Every structure is written in C-alpha cells, then in structure tokens.
C-alpha cells in the first residue's frame, strides 16, 4: 500500500503530460480551424490576382 501512495503522490512526469495534452489540443484546434482559414486565404488570393489584372496597365 505504501508503494501505491508513493506512486500517486509522485509528480515526476506531470509537466510532460501537460505538454502532451496542450500539444494535442493545439493540433485538434488546427485541424478544425485551418479549413475555413485556408478557404478565406485562397479567396483573398484570387481577389488580389483579379484586382491586379484589372489595374495591370497602371503597374507597368
């Protein structure tokens, strides 16, 4: 029983577990957030390209 109490009271490795949980949270967040952001970035790039195409004579 003393070994179990010692094991449960030991905090070695707790920081590692925290980092693993935080990293997993960031990865999950990125998986769910990146598709809408990527879509918006592609749309903005197309808009910028179209705008430059309209005003290319002024840019020469």
Automatic annotation (TrEMBL):
Name the record gives this protein: Pilus assembly protein
Record carries keyword Membrane: yes
Record has Transmembrane helix as a keyword: yes
Bilayer-crossing regions: 20-37
Keyword annotations of the record: Membrane, Transmembrane, Transmembrane helix
Domain of life: Bacteria
């Amino acid at each position: 029983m003393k070994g179990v109490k010692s094991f449960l009271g030991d905090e070695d490795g707790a920081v590692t577990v925290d980092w693993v949980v935080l990293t997993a949270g960031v990865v999950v967040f990125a998986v769910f957030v990146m598709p809408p952001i990527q879509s918006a970035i592609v749309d903005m790039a197309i808009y910028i390209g179209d705008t430059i195409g309209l005003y290319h004579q002024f840019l020469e």
